[in-house]
Amino acid sequence: DSGVTQTPKHLITATGQRVTLRCSPRSGDLSVYWYQQSLDQGLQFLIQYYNGEERAKGNILERFSAQQFPDLHSELNLSSLELGDSALYFCASSAEGSPKETQYFGPGTRLLVL
Amino acid sequence: GENVEQHPSTLSVQEGDSAVIKCTYSDSASNYFPWYKQELGKGPQLIIDIRSNVGEKKDQRIAVTLNKTAKHFSLHITETQPEDSAVYFCAARGDGNQFYFGTGTSLTVIP
Questions:
Q1: How do residues B16-69 score in pLDDT, each as one tens digit?
Q2: Which residues does chain B have within 8 Å of residue A45's beta carbon, measured at their own beta carbons?
Q3: Angstroms from A12 CA to nearest CA on chain B
Q4: How many angstroms separate the CA atoms of B18 and B32, rounded?
Q5: Average pLDDT for residues B92-98, to the nearest whole number?
Q6: Are A35 and A87 in contact (CB under 8 A)?
Q7: Which of A36, A105, A110 to probe by mutation at the B interface, max B CB count within 10 Å?
């Protein structure tokens, strides 16, 4: 158990819909990262937040957005969903700012868009 | 940005044999290289990591080596066991705090 929690575990929705994925980082970790894992693309970095502020952006679509709240949990919002958005979405956290740079991954949310 | 390549994509070994997975990276400024194990239906789990000021690190049956000059690093698993079967990912910490992942190696340990 990494200490990172993600909800929901599974999500089934239809094209055009909007969903929100939630992540709670490990206690004490200030940084949250979101990744998308699909069969053909591997692990793709989407976005990083540090202490409530966006820190880095990766291959995140404009239809997707994220935020980190004062209690450090984070949400990833996916809108106008397409079939190709079906994937595993992982959240990871790290204690940025300390010598430790290790990322710890949550169990993921499996999204299926029908 | 950083580019991480990983080989092989699949690897089958007999139980008790060794397994080696190799990764190369492009950004000479990268300074941290973790390895993750992902079992079916689970998130990646950190198994070992190495920083750029170290050439080798070992933890029981698992070891990682880093060659900064050649920009490659490798995962070595000795005395493999069936429970080592999983997908293994290498990663490199590039610009800022972004992590770039390899495409994964599916390891099968045959009993």
A1: 999 999 999 999 888 899 999 999 888 999 999 998 888 999 999 999 999 999
A2: 98-101
A3: 16
A4: 24
A5: 74
A6: no
A7: A105
